[in-house]
Structure formats: structure tokens, C-alpha cells
Design a protein that fits this description.
This protein is of the alpha+beta class. 30% of the residues lie in helices and 20% in strands. The protein has 35 helices and 39 strands. The strands form nine sheets. An eight-stranded mixed β-sheet has the order 21-23-19-31-28-29-30-39, with helices on both faces. It has a six-stranded mixed β-sheet with strand order 4-3-5-1-2-6. The radius of gyration is 32 Å and the shape is globular. The relative contact order is 0.07. The N terminus is likely disordered.
Length: 1112
């Protein structure tokens, strides 16, 4: 390579304004991968070569002339944080987040889910023709779509050196950062809120700002408090500070930086001149047998993997989001037409401005679709096409357009270039339509249009797919002389209860030309119930999530129709009784509020003070680095696991197709571990869990191999092409009941004994005769998936003298070192494991960090190069398990005074395909199951079941939560059946001082009665309960309640053996501390620093806490 060629590649990789190099041999080790380029220097840039021997120069134009001639590429010009970039991109599908992180080292933009659902990748984008920017998800935004755009990331707002932006400062100072992985996204969401509201948000708007940011691990109140500090204020000083920071950021960046992305082009990108050009190109390419995708916001790409049998990639992408004709919103006498590139956000804004009954109903419902980041770029037409292609997709937009009797204008392959106008309902039902190009949609928004009532039942208020959605449109007779309310026509559409929206034809017939009355309503309800019942055994549109029970969906449909009928009746002047009025009222979520009190204990400063977390500011401005953030050097390779499609005996593993992918350098399997003399084991004990499946696959959540490549995208694509063939397969065990029926249980062993298989006190068998009332039953919990923000990640680097360095997102560096040593057959002193911080864990990185950490270490050892791996969210959830599902069978007896006499329960835990943490978790449940209650006769048995699901693991209060959930549910059931207040029944059975637990521990310091009474008094329980009873007696359909439950929680000190190294610097007396805990959001580093500051009587500012290593 010549100096100029290398300089250009350096510039392309690290984004410098120019490159200075002295001689060809004096070259720094920089990041790859490096493409093949011509060794001959083109004459056009000889002068530039001379300039490189001096000061910094710009080589953007010349750079384009030395790209490999055989490689077609896109030229994208954009600005990032005030800096101009000219990007030669060989793959239009590269997401903005990938470009920011891998090529600009702007790792403050995180990737949490890759689906547009978590908000960790939030950035601001503005095009030149837009007055203000909009926030969007960088993980879904194709880089090619940003030609001419200005991008602002968290780094562009501010940093600790030049000063924090007000939103970053507020988030840090309100303690809104926990693990910090989501904090940059939170700050960008707040920034977007200030832009949307011109710096004057209301309290409602501040809460609304975080629709697309799913993390709530701080308890959420501190984040809301940070946002609310901007409410109803015009922060002029903030605007001035922002402008000053922007000026600093943009200083000396007037020149353009050239960057080349040498990924292999798999898709062609086309920028049409106008709608005709786009349409002609679309059908022209299709006629050639090519697959073509029209692309606007690309938000559907995040969820397509749940609906496609295998990943689909179009040969050509036609970008239409910037075509003015498709972005238009026009009106003609209250009939509105929206172009197909109109985003959901712009559609909603237009509906709000129209301000009619129908437009308000549509706007309110659209606000419940996805989140700000998605609605800002996602289009209504893209949503409609998605459900047209995949009927299982739970589209709200489709339902709204059907109910609004919207007319669609489109061109399709079968229409032979002619525009077709069809109702949305007919469009979806017409089977002959092929390859559609949607132009616009038109519907009536006048006050005279039929009234619209829409509903969406979902797991969360926002940012969630519907469990069931429905829309009802009522047209009424005008000027009825009898004063009756007569329905002229009605349109009913219910989603997710059938494969396509169910239009309720029989109920519609009864409603048409009918007079509204209680009799009419009852007839309709009975008819609707019957026609819904006919759908029970038919296909329903649930694919990405398990469907709720049909009985539940049926009940919801009837309830929502009932609500719509009452709402329509009241709107038209009908009088509802106070008892049923609440059914017609839409629920309005109030602004949340909360307070905290903190009492400082004198003489313990600074331990007693609620100081801001040491890393809070770094986290809120995106400077805090996580395992997945560290930049690679020129040798770093990327790893991605191969997962199986079945359970059974392995016949062969074919890697030829994967190795053919440019960039793939190796596929590591169990056989490769043998070649280095290592052990294929990463489980809790020998033989429990292999790193890679060897002879037999026991779960679809098991690693089969590891594809290693020069870049992340090549590794992921290669993993899809590794073929596993089976000599035989078996039907997996997928439930606890199935495991019980087949006798599939885990047995304790010498490495992992079960301390408390059965805990017993008294004589339960004889005690039943003393019981006045005996209750039996079963309780079941399906478990809980982990959703830490940073997925499992690890990095391994071979060092001198055959040492291995590993950085892992884990909860224990010593445990990771032990497993890496076993895998590589190295002694402990030859392996260093470090962890600076973890992007969330909740127990999920206690043992489930081992498979990836050991796998990348094996790859690094074999290849002799650094290897980095991070799991995609879907792979992470498929392989890492979560909270153990349980099945509990219980029996409980009480005497005539409602005092518990006897209790017996058998609890079965689903451990997954390996034992892993199951036995310790069973023991935790046994230790805590009694909770706050005294049982004179007691027997509890805990059993671990072996299934073929992903290995389950620790999750916040592991085992304890399942046990207390069971016991408190039982207490509620008994109180209800005995017709006494639950809190009274609980108090009757509290432990008292000096009583023994079933494990024989004497409770010397228990003060349950005192704490319970204090809570009842402080929170005015009786007053709240009385108010709830009054409200409930006046409202048939809306209820209120107040609840209190106790908790006895012990801390087992035997689990927490720690070491700390305190170093006082000779130079100036400042202090560094290294400890063996893991910082994962709980603020352990801050607490350690506070303790050291108190003990040594030094300022907190003079203490630094180092990253955790296996050496400490």
C-alpha cells in the first residue's frame, strides 16, 4: 500500500478530517476490515501525496477515485454532530446505528433490541427542508436514506469536557441513570420532547416523551422528575448554552471527511425522481423477476423476523419517503387525502388540527401505535402493506381505515399500470392483487361523518401490540321526529380474534336501522356472543406472541362493543345512569407523581448523603463504555453463534456456505476445542452444559457453533448458512406437566447439592383433622424473560506468553475466569477477566454470560486474534432463559378463628435443558416460602424439572418471588372464601417474636405487627379503603382498590465474600479503589467510594474506583 492509500483508509475508518503519515512502514494499528485496493497511485492525487508529508489535508474527493473499481457503491453525504461526511457505502441496508458505532466510534448510540422498541438507539435527524428534527431509531434507519440529512447523537448534545446539555445534566442530577445503558436514549427522547414543544412542554408531554424508551429499572420516577423539571418553562438559557456547545462542536469541521464502508452489496438502492419514476422502476424490476421493496421509514424491518419463515431480502430497495407527491396532505370539503409517504406522526398532527369527533378518535388511537421514534418515520401505507403481506400482523392502522370507510388509491401488477380506487376492506380481501404500489388514502373527517369509537387492549399503555383492537362506526338518522336515537348504519371491525378483521355481520344486521334501547343492546350482545363463538376453532392472527385464551378475547370483544354502544348513545343525547356511565368514559391516565424522604444520620458523611452516582454524567452523555462499546483494532474479529432448528443427534455440520461469505474466516465447533486441549464445558458443574453441542442437541437455545468474521454483519449472515443435519430427532419436552408425566427431573450431585429438598415441621398428616376449613388447588406461573438493555457481550484478546484477556458483561469475573480456564485448559494466573460496568443484568448475567464468554475465548485462542461477540436480542432471549416457570400443588387448613393449622405444597420448577442454577434457586424458595406467617404444621417440597427449553437462571429474588407469589395467592384465596378482609387474615397469622421458622431459625428481632400498623396508619389505609368502597358502589364497571402485603426477606451472608484493594497515590494523596463487586446499575462504585471517603476522611472527588478484575 502507498502512504496515500493507507491514509485514506485510516481516514475512512476513524473519521479524521485529514491524515498525516511520514512513510509507508510507519503505520499505526487501526481498525479493519480492510478492502483490497489498487497498489498503483493514480496521477490525479500525486499532489495530495506530497501534502500528506506536511500538515493535515482533506482527501475526500480523491478518496472516491481509489475505491475498488469492481465494487459498486452509493455516495451518501450527511452531517453528524456538525461534521460533514462523504460516505461510499456498498450496502444500503446498513443501519445508521451500525455506521455511528463502528465507523465513527459514537458508541453513545446503543443497540438494545434492533427492533425499534427499546429506545436505546434514539438519535435526532433533520433534513434541509425541515424546520426541526425528529427523533428516530438508528437501529432501523438505513444509512442510504439519510443523504442530505443532519444527524445529532447524544455526543452532539454535550459531554463532561465541554459541558453537559441541560437534559443530560437534569437526568444525571435527578439520579435518572441506573445501569446507564438506556440513559443516552432517555436523554435524546427528552431532547426530542423539547424540540417538539418549542421548549415549553406540559407535564403530560414530559411523561409522553418516553413512549419509545422501554427501560424502567430506576423505578422511573427519577427520569420523570428530570423531564418534568422542563415542564411549563421556556428555558432560554438552555437554548443559548446549546448554541454555544454546537458552535464548539462545529469548529474546524468545515471540511468533509471521507469514509468507505466495504461491506458486500447484496441489495441495490434506487432514489427515484418522482412518483412515476418510482412506480415505473418498481414494476420494471418485478417484470425481470427481481424482488423489490418500497422503503420509507423501514420500521417494519424490526418485526418482520417474527412473521417470515426465513429472512427475506429484496434485490432492490426503492426509497420513496422524500417524494413530495407522496408526502402531501390535501383536503376537499373535509374529505382528506394522505399520500403514502405521510408518516403516522404527520397523519396524527393533521387529524388533531381538523378537530372533529372522527379525527379526534383516530388521532387518539394512533397515539397508542408504537412510539414517537417509530411514528416519526413509519408510514400508514407501510403499516397497511405489512398486514396485507402478513395477516398475522396486529395492525391498528388497518382497523382504523376500515372503520373510517377509507378509499385506497394504488397501482398493482394486475392493474397493468392503471390507478385503482378501492376500499381498504376490499383491498385486504382481494386475493388477486399482486405487487402493490400505494399512492394515497382518502376518507371523510367532517362532523357529519359517522361517529367513530376505537379501542386497543394491550400489555402497556403505549409501545405494545394489541391483544385485541376494535373500531365501531355509527351513522345516525338526522332529525328523528319521535326523539328516538336511530342507527342508520354501522360498521364493526374487531382485530386479532380472527385471521382477518371480523366485521360481525349478524350483529351489524340487527343494528342497521334500529332504535337504540336496552332491549336492542341485549339482543345485539347475545347475537355477538354467538357469532364470536363460531370463530373459536378457526385460525387467529397471533404469531409473534402466544395468543390469550379465546374466552378472554370473546369477553373483550363483547365488552368493547358494549362500551361503544353506550358512548354513541350518550354522544347523541341519551341519558346514562350513573352506575353504568363509567363504561362510556375513556380512561385517561393521570400524570404520575411521587415523593421521597431521606434522613441523614449525623457523623457518617459522605456515606449518609444521597450523592449523584459517580458515573451518572458519563452515562447520560454517552461517554461511559460498556463491553459492547469498545472499539476494535485492525485485527479484531466478530463472532456470532449458530443455533439449531431441532433437537436430536447430530449427523453433520456443514460450514461451506458460511465460509463462502466474504469476511467469514472460521466456524468454530466442539471439535476445535479438542484440538487445543480444552474442555467443552461452560455449565454450573462438569457435564452440565457444553459450550457447543457435540453429539446431540437438547434445546433450540443451545450453541452449535460460532461463526467468526471480519465484521459483525458477515458473522451474522454466516451463522444463518451453517447447516446442521440430524441422524435422528426427538419431540422436546416443553412444559412442567409434560416433564412430570415423563418423570424428567434433575438429581442433585456432589458439585451442586440440594440443601432443602423437603422442609418439614410438625405432623401435617395428623393436623388436617384439627382444621375447620381445608382448601386445595394449583398455582402456575409461566416465568419471565430477561430484558437487560445490553445483551450478552464479551471480548477476548490473546496476550503475550499465552495469556488470555477477557472482558465480559457479567456478574462475576472470577466465575468467568474459572470457565475460560476450563475451556482453554489454562491455569488461573494465565487468564485475566475484567468488567467495567454491565448494561443491566437482574441475574441474567450471573451464569448465562458463560456460554458467549467461553465461546469467544476459544475462538481467540484458536485464531490468535481478538474476538468480540454480542448477541442479537432475539438470540439472547432464545438462549439465555429467564425466571423459572413453576407449578405448585397446595393444601392449607385453618381453624374456626381463621388461624392457619397446616400447610403443604409441592412446587415444580422448570430448569430448562441444563440444571444450571436450579438447585440454589429451589433452596432460596424453601428458605423464604413461609414469608411473614407462622405455620405450626408445615411441609414444602421443591423439585427441579428437566425440559428442552432454554436454560433458566437467576432473576431478581430468584425462587423467592415464585414462593411468595404462591403463598400470597393462597392467603388471598382463603380470605376470599372465608369472606374476611385479606389484611385481617394476614395479620392473624403473622410471626411473633421468638417463634421458630420451619428451618429452625429463631426470629429474635421481628417486629411485623409494629411495621404493619405503622404502614396502615401512615398511608391512611382505612380511609382509602372506605373511599374505594363508596366509588365501587356507584360504578358498575370501573373499580378501585387498596392492597397491602407483608414481606420477610433474609440476607444470606455466606454468599457474599468480597475483597477490596485501596491504593493511596504517593504523588498527591488521592485514592484509587479496586473491589470484587460488579457495577451493574446499583451504584456499588459510588457506595464504595463513599465508604472509603468516610474512613480516610478525604473528599469524594479525590477517589476513583477502578474496573473489576478477576485479580481482585
Amino acid at each position: 500500500w502507498t502512504t496515500i492509500e493507507f491514509a485514506m483508509e485510516v481516514k475512512a475508518k476513524i473519521g479524521l478530517r485529514g491524515i498525516r503519515a511520514r512513510k509507508q512502514g510507519d503505520l499505526p494499528a487501526l481498525r479493519g476490515p480492510w478492502p483490497k485496493v489498487s497498489a498503483k497511485l493514480p496521477p490525479v492525487i500525486e499532489s495530495v501525496e506530497k501534502e500528506l508529508r506536511g500538515d493535515w489535508v482533506d482527501v475526500s474527493d480523491e478518496f472516491k477515485k481509489v475505491k475498488a473499481s469492481a465494487l459498486e457503491s452509493l455516495n451518501i453525504k450527511l452531517k453528524v454532530n456538525g461534521k460533514n461526511y462523504n460516505v461510499d457505502c456498498s450496502d444500503p441496508a446498513i443501519p445508521l446505528a451500525y455506521f455511528l458505532r463502528e465507523y465513527l466510534d459514537l458508541t453513545g448510540t446503543k443497540i438494545g433490541c434492533g427492533e425499534g422498541g427499546c429506545g436505546a438507539c434514539t438519535v435526532m435527524v433533520r433534513f434541509l427542508d425541515e424546520k426541526q428534527g425528529k427523533i428516530l431509531n438508528a437501529c432501523l434507519c438505513p444509512l442510504a436514506s439519510l443523504n442530505g440529512a443532519e444527524v445529532t447523537t447524544i455526543e452532539g448534545l454535550g459531554n463532561e469536557r465541554t459541558g453537559l446539555h441541560p437534559v443530560q445534566k437534569a437526568l444525571a442530577e435527578h439520579n435518572g441513570s441506573q445501569c446507564g445503558y438506556c440513559s443516552p436514549g432517555m436523554a435524546m427522547a427528552m431532547y426530542g420532547m423539547l424540540k417538539r414543544t418549542n421548549g415549553k412542554p406540559s407535564e403530560e408531554e414530559t411523561e409522553d416523551a418516553f413512549q419509545g424508551n422501554i427501560c424502567r429499572c430506576t423505578g422511573y420516577r427519577p427520569i420523570l422528575n428530570a423531564a418534568k423539571s422542563f415542564a411549563n418553562q421556556c428555558h432560554e438559557e438552555h437554548k443559548q448554552q446549546a448554541e454555544e456547545r454546537k458552535a464548539k462542536l462545529c469548529d474546524n469541521y468545515e471540511k468533509t471527511v471521507a469514509i468507505r464502508i466495504p461491506d458486500v452489496m447484496e441489495q441495490e438502492w434506487y432514489e427515484p425522481k418522482d412518483v412515476k419514476d418510482a412506480s415505473d422502476k418498481f414494476f420494471s424490476e418485478i417484470s425481470k423477476g427481481r424482488s423489490v421493496q418500497l422503503i420509507a421509514g423501514n420500521t417494519g424491518n424490526g418485526i418482520m423476523k417474527y412473521y417470515q419463515e426465513k429472512p427475506e431480502k429484496a434485490d432492490m430497495l426503492i426509497h420513496i419517503s422524500r417524494l413530495p407527491e407522496l408526502m402531501q396532505i390535501t383536503s376537499d370539503n373535509d374529505t382528506y387525502t394522505f399520500g403514502s409517504a405521510v408518516t403516522l406522526a404527520d397523519l396524527r398532527n393533521a387529524l388533531i388540527k381538523t378537530d372533529t369527533q372522527r379525527s379526534r378518535a383516530l388521532a387518539n388511537h394512533i397515539h397508542k401505535v408504537a412510539n414517537h421514534q417509530v411514528r416519526n418515520v413509519g408510514t400508514w401505507a407501510g403499516n397497511l402493506v405489512t398486514v396485507w403481506k402478513y395477516p398475522e400482523f396486529p395492525s391498528d392502522i388497518m382497523l382504523l381505515l376500515i372503520a373510517a370507510d377509507a378509499k385506497l388509491k394504488y397501482v398493482s401488477e394486475d392493474s397493468k399500470g392503471k390507478e385503482v380506487v378501492l376500499s381498504v376492506e376490499d383491498f385486504l380481501n382481494k386475493k388477486s392483487i399482486k405487487n402493490v404500489f400505494i399512492i394515497s388514502v382518502t376518507f371523510d373527517l367532517s362532523e357529519e361523518a359517522p361517529s367513530l369509537f376505537t379501542y386497543k387492549v394491550m400489555p402497556r399503555h403505549v409501545n405494545a401490540h394489541a391483544l385485541l383492537n376494535a373500531a365501531f362506526s355509527y351513522e345516525f338518522e338526522k332529525d328523528n321526529k319521535n326523539g328516538d336515537i336511530v342507527i342508520k348504519s354501522v360498521k364493526m371491525a374487531v382485530g386479532r380474534i380472527a385471521e382477518r378483521p371480523f366485521m360481525c355481520p349478524e350483529t351489524t344486521k340487527i343494528l342497521t336501522n334500529s332504535t337504540m334501547s336496552s332491549t336492542n343492546l341485549k339482543t345485539c350482545l347475545k347475537t355477538l356472543e354467538k357469532e364470536i363463538a363460531s370463530l373459536e376453532n378457526k385460525k387467529r392472527c397471533f404469531r409473534s406472541v402466544p395468543p390469550p385464551p379465546f374466552a378472554y378475547l370473546s369477553m373483550l370483544t363483547i365488552s368493547l362493543f358494549y362500551k361503544s354502544y353506550l358512548s354513541a348513545y350518550e354522544q347523541e343525547g341519551g341519558k346514562l345512569t350513573k352506575e353504568v356511565m363509567s363504561a362510556a368514559q375513556e380512561y385517561q391516565r393521570p400524570v404520575s407523581k411521587g415523593t421521597e424522604t431521606f434522613t441523614e444520620k449525623k457523623g457518617l458523611a459522605p456515606v449518609n448523603r444521597p450523592v449523584i452516582k459517580l458515573s451518572a454524567k458519563a452515562q447520560c452523555c454517552g461517554e461511559a463504555k460498556y463491553t459492547s462499546d469498545h472499539p476494535k483494532n485492525i485485527k479484531t474479529l466478530y463472532a456470532y453463534p449458530v443455533l439449531p432448528t431441532d433437537c436430536g443427534k447430530i449427523k453433520s455440520i456443514s460450514v461451506a456456505n458460511a465460509m463462502a461469505i466474504p469476511g467469514v474466516v472460521a466456524v468454530i465447533t466442539a471439535n476445535d476445542i479438542k484440538k487445543i486441549g480444552g474442555s467443552n464445558n461452560c455449565g454450573a458443574f462438569p457435564g452440565d452444559e457444553p459450550i457447543f453441542a457435540e453429539e446431540e442437541i437438547f434445546s433450540r437455545g443451545q450453541f452449535v457453533a460460532l461463526v467468526v468474521a471480519s465484521n459483525e454483519r458477515a458473522a451474522e449472515k454466516g451463522s444463518e448458512l451453517v447447516e446442521v443435519s440430524y441422524s435422528s430427532t426427538f419431540k422436546p419436552i416443553t412444559s412442567i406437566r409434560e416433564a412430570i408425566s415423563k418423570g424428567s427431573f434433575y438429581k442433585p450431585n456432589k458439585f451442586q447439592p440440594q440443601m432443602f429438598p423437603t422442609v418439614e415441621r410438625g405432623d401435617v398428616s395428623k393436623a388436617w383433622a384439627k382444621c375447620k376449613h381445608v382448601f386445595t388447588g394449583e398455582l402456575e406461573s409461566k416465568g419471565q424473560s430477561h430484558f437487560y438493555m445490553e445483551t450478552q457481550s464479551a471480548r477476548a484478546v490473546p496476550l503475550e506468553q499465552k495469556r488470555m484477556f477477557v472482558e465480559a458483561g457479567c456478574q462475576g469475573t472470577t466465575e468467568v475466569r474459572q470457565h475460560v480456564c476450563i475451556a482453554l485448559n489454562k491455569p488461573a494466573h494465565m487468564v485475566d477477566v475484567v468488567s467495567r460496568r454491565v448494561g443491566g443484568s437482574f441475574g441474567g448475567k450471573h451464569s448465562r454470560s458463560m456460554p458467549l464468554a467461553t465461546a469467544v475465548a476459544v475462538a481467540a485462542e484458536i485464531l490468535g486474534k481478538p474476538v468480540k461477540g454480542q448477541l442479537d436480542r432475539k438470540v439472547d432471549m432464545r438462549t439465555c432463559g429467564g425466571r423459572h416457570p413453576i407449578l405448585a400443588k397446595y393444601k392449607i387448613g385453618v381453624d374456626e378463628n381463621a388461624k392457619i393449622v397446616a400447610f403443604e405444597m409441592d412446587t415444580f420448577f422448570d430448569g430448562g435443558y441444563t440444571a444450571n442454577d436450579t438447585f440454589p434457586i429451589l433452596d432460596e424458595m424453601q428458605i423464604m416460602l413461609d414469608n411473614a406467617y407462622y405455620f405450626p404444621n408445615y411441609k414444602s417440597t421443591a423439585i427441579g424439572c428437566k425440559t428442552n427449553l432454554a436454560t433458566n437462571t437467576q432473576m431478581r429474588a430468584p425462587g423467592i418471588l415464585q414462593g411468595i407469589y404462591c403463598l400470597e395467592s393462597i392467603m388471598d384465596r382463603v380470605a376470599t372464601d372465608l369472606k374476611i378482609r385479606p389484611e385481617d387474615f394476614r395479620k392473624k397469622n403473622f410471626y411473633t417474636k421468638d417463634q421458630l421458622t420451619p428451618l429452625g431459625e429463631t426470629l429474635k428481632h421481628i417486629e411485623l405487627d409494629t411495621v404493619w400498623n405503622d404502614c396502615l396508619s401512615k398511608f391512611e389505609f382505612s380511609k382509602r379503603l372506605a373511599a374505594a368502597k363508596v366509588f365501587n358502589s356507584s360504578n358498575r364497571w370501573r373499580k378501585r382498590g387498596v392492597y397491602i402485603t407483608p414481606c420477610k426477606y433474609g440476607l444470606q451472608q455466606r454468599f457474599y465474600k468480597t475483597s477490596v484493594l485501596v491504593n493511596i497515590c504517593l504523588d498527591d494523596g488521592t485514592v484509587t479503589v479496586a473491589h470484587s463487586g460488579i457495577e451493574m446499575g446499583q451504584g456499588i462504585n459510588t457506595k464504595v467510594a463513599q465508604s472509603v471517603a468516610h474512613e480516610l476522611n478525604v473528599s469524594l472527588e479525590n477517589i476513583s474506583v477502578l474496573r473489576t478484575t478477576s485479580a481482585t
